[in-house]
Specification:
homodimer; Phosphoribosyl-aminoimidazole Synthetase, Chain A, domain 2; alpha+beta; 60s Ribosomal Protein L30, Chain: A; 2 domains; four-stranded mixed sheet; seven-stranded mixed sheet; 11 helices
Chain lengths: ~325, ~325
């Protein structure tokens, strides 16, 4: 492998996003120079994917490139922000051109979809690890985790649990059957809910992205809001493939505790609720009410009329799951 | 180790930088929300340090935390930007509290010096690797690599080569003697030239930070400017400890090709030269003229009146040095 670092970056990443007029200096100088739109706030997120931790060793490179961007976009969606620019720090054991070209294609696919420019970053040698930093804008107030109030309705977008099932399938822990391709795709190529997040700013009192499992992330939203929450077991939105592949009981469990969904969990106050449901029909926007915030701390799962207190069991890199 | 990821971040990084009024939302939500000053451009850099590649395995944690920020600040200095905010992505094999507290102390020391707020990031489990993303501002035009013209004077700050000698000492490749502590410190705790960079915007036609070796980085500045350069061997600024420890010949070689200095290399046009030297005396600001840009491409080293064409031999992660 004789291509230099600089050649690699040049070749695969210079045209990895879109060209934007607000990029004064992009990849190739010591730093990027960018124009912030007047009157808006800058929103910044940064997430890392580690080989064998956040994706299986040997995962498809286009999925790794796509997901490294998706997980960051999802953070911006949770704030109600619109994405503009990204920086990419890629650590690689070797400069494999086939791998790089697929990785870049996965990244570029999602970048183009959200009009995002790749403006800088770093390529280094070492164990495979990808950090992406995304910058975006929000006009007015960003959605925070902390704005929920007791009595607010609690919602989730999409069908959580699918990605965790997809990961189990990717890792060969579950047998193949009908519907498994759909679930794999939900893990490999999750959909950051950018448009939903941007629109929800008008209605939601609080929002968080569901990356570590719905239960844990809803718990974080509730705790940041000084509340607890009740989640209704029967109201969890489950995909048909998930129920078919996992069975109903395990599907509910995955919807509550599986990670990597990159959906949005949000609360809406009584004053905004009717307007939300009228202006953004749940069927069209793909979200569903799963419960409510309440004054008492902690999360209860309401099943068959009985409430069961649940331990906070979100995804945690250094405790429990070993991830 | 039972502290959760979230507890770790909270404990060590929440107060790792300064509090700034332009941070609307810092660590703890899905993303940070920041106020860009009107009329200024945003400047963004991101660099990664990998264990055993960019620092010796077992390096002091405070140095790793400090350097992870310093290498990024140096990129901002090269643009003439002032730093404001940083995000930190830390991948760790285990959550060692002693290590984390020293790492955070090293990071915080430099952050406080430059009025920088740590506003977000990610902590993950995996082989030790640190990515920092720094955001800053520049009013007016940033310095680019590409603005140099034939005939411009070429300068470098500080005494390049020191850090490479310091690394050799840290790795036990060189014997200890008088002056070695100074050289080690130059590797472990380099000084990003923030004030110099910000002031140079008035005078410099082009600027780059010297991270990969003076020869390679001067070559990048010259090439980006569509020029070549002559560097005068006798004019290389060498520290007394470097000459003492390495000898004159090896000291010159390290000044040309050693990495990790994080000094600035810059060019100044004839129209600005007298003003630069008068307004920013080299002795006070710690920089020195080392040659000139010229029309013919490539870099010549002028020694004892003879010019020798040098191969571009900058630091390169995937070719040559094996880093």
């Amino acid at each position: 492998m004789s291509l230099s670092e600089f050649g690699l970056i040049e070749r695969y990443f210079r045209h990895c996003g879109v060209a934007r007029e607000d990029v004064r200096v992009g990849v190739g100088d010591d730093a990027a120079v960018l124009e912030c739109p007047p009157g808006q706030h800058l929103v910044a997120a940064m997430d890392t994917l580690v080989d064998g931790v956040h994706f299986p060793h040997g995962a498809p490179p286009d999925s790794i490139g796509y997901r490294a961007l998706a997980v960051n976009l999802s953070d911006l969606a949770a704030m109600g922000a619109r994405a503009a620019w990204a920086l990419l720090a890629l650590t690689l054991p070797e400069a494999d051109e086939g791998w790089l070209s697929q990785f870049a294609a996965g990244f570029a696919k999602l970048a183009r979809l959200h009009n995002l420019a790749l403006v800088g970053g770093d390529t280094t040698r070492g164990p495979l690890c990808v950090t992406v930093q995304v910058l975006g804008h929000v006009s007015g107030s960003a959605m925070l985790r902390s704005g929920g109030r007791p009595g607010d309705a609690l919602f989730v977008s999409g069908t959580p649990g699918d990605a965790a099932a997809g990961l189990a399938l990717e890792q060969g822990r579950w047998p193949e059957s009908g519907g498994t391709q759909y679930l794999r795709e939900r893990f490999l190529f999750p959909t950051p809910r950018m448009e939903l997040g941007e629109r929800l700013r008008e209605y939601a009192s609080a929002c968080i992205d569901v990356s570590d499992g719905l239960l844990g992330d809803a718990g974080k939203l509730a705790a940041a809001s000084g509340c607890g929450a009740e989640i209704v077991y029967a109201d969890l939105p489950l995909s048909e493939p998930l129920v078919r592949v996992a069975g109903a009981e395990r599907a509910h469990e995955l919807a509550l505790t599986g990670g990597d969904d990159y959906e949005l969990c949000f609360s809406v106050g009584p004053g905004q609720l009717a307007q939300l449901l009228a202006q953004m029909p749940p069927e069209r926007w793909g979200y569903r009410r799963i419960g409510s915030l309440r004054q008492a701390p902690g999360i209860d799962l309401v099943r068959d009329g009985a409430a069961v207190r649940l331990p906070p069991s979100g995804y945690d890199h250094f405790a429990g799951t070993g991830r």
